[in-house]
Amino acid sequence: MSLLQVCDVVAGYGETEILHSVSITVERGQIVTIIGPNGSGKSTLLKTIFGLIRPKKGQVLLNGEDITGVAPETIVRKGLCYVPQSSNIFPSLSIHENLEMGAFIRTDDFRYRLQEVYDLFPDLVERRNDRAGTLSGGQRQMLAVARALMLDPVMLLLDEPSAGLAPNLAVSVLGKILGINSTGVAILLVEQNAREALKLSSWGYILASGNNQLEDRGENLLKNPEVARLYLGG
Amino acid sequence: MAILQQTARRLPQRWTAGYSVLAGLLILLILAFLSVVKLELIVNGLFLGTILALGAIGLSLVYGINKFAHIAHGDFMTLGAYIALFLLGMLFPSIGLEGIGLGPFTFGYPLLLALPITMLVMAAVAIGLDVGIYRRLRSRGVSAVVMAMTSLGVAIALRGLVQVIWGGGTWQYPRLSKPFYQLPMEVRIPPDNLFIGALALVLVIALYLFLTRTKMGKAMRATSDNMELARVSGINTERVIWWTWGLSAALAATAGILLAIFQAQLLPIMGWRFLIPLFAAVILGGIGNPYGALVGALIIGVSAEVSTQWLTPAYKPAIAFLIMIVTLLFRPRGIFGVRE
Asked: Using CB atoms and an 8 Å cut-off, which of residues 7-26 of chain B contact chain A?
């Protein structure tokens, strides 16, 4: 049984339909990347998986369990965590409090997990008592991912974690993601930085105007001349 | 080193704001010593400010979470004051709980009992209103204007309810007149004001500790920052909204009771009249920032009282309104508002 299965999902905002029919599958421990032009529905897909948008048709299965249209605050208890593209931190809370909010539903002692997360993002330790709103763009993205890791998820949904970052920072964020994956966390990644992301991925999907366009192993997509021309900037 | 630089860069904005408030108070005190302004007005303005603060902090919390202007907040104060009147004037005496003139104060120990009971009842009323009205509108995704207009309706309904039950005339809590404290520089303070100031201070500190030390308090600040991210983190935002209503209504009820003691009378319109000063305090302090609301309330309280040296007291709300307009024109994010 696959970890995450999205079957023929149709979704959108109000009357506007964005996803016409999208299916994807993520296996345990994989990194899967979704690429595609702006407006192809990548973010909408993640929001639909996470219950922020209720799909009109189709099914979302996590570990075989139907989570279609289940509220985010319930889904998060099933080991799936989501990092939105923007507004993904609590700016008026301290860095430490942001991580505490990440662990909100934990009733056990999460100090050990906190230490692990700080070890993964050492930049955050020295700023732990500062307001998160004072962090730089790169640090904000690190904090956003760190918050989602507090629950020890089996899978992370990441919406363009390197958006708006300088190229060297973007690469370092993607490096962190590889590090997180190596601890056994499956990752579904939406990325503008398609070439770098596909290098890390075991599988890749290309979405175009709300439909599945193409899917293959990450390395094969990189080698595919048409994909390179259309989606990887030559 | 990096931390030091960061701190240095961030501080000025907040510090200048804090310094300008201190400087304003200092100028007032100097004027008082030069006998231009009566010190008594400044002191009693601060006490009025603490009452205002209890209302304004709650209003600011509600705005932070619900993102609409809660126009019924003044009438929460009124209803709270009248519920305490029912307890002190009817229920308690009927079971033999009576007493006035506790120590230096006009009221007796039953008030100390009436306060927590009224806070709980008003918290329940506010949560009930959310379940019955606001939540239904919220789930339909109506705009902030519709929510504010709905709360205007609630305000009128609550005031109507008070008038139907208690009539339009004035009432008083059972009280025993007490001599004022006579301090140097012709400052006279009613002893009740010390109780008012102390209770307000205790509640503000308790709220601060709640917001910064408890899980629910932090979740409340997180939800105020970003409700969608709060849900994504697994926070039950509906429960946070209930806590917010409950707390802010309990604070408003306390403000209403303290106002009834401060003015030594209850009127159905007492809370409604307080609405503009409340909003002025919230806007002056930075909308959605409870600590700012506290400072804003003290400034409005002192300004309104000091103005009575030259203007008739009827103009007090006008002073608050003037401060609100000036703030909106020149510093719309308020004294402590931070640009995001």
From this structure: 10
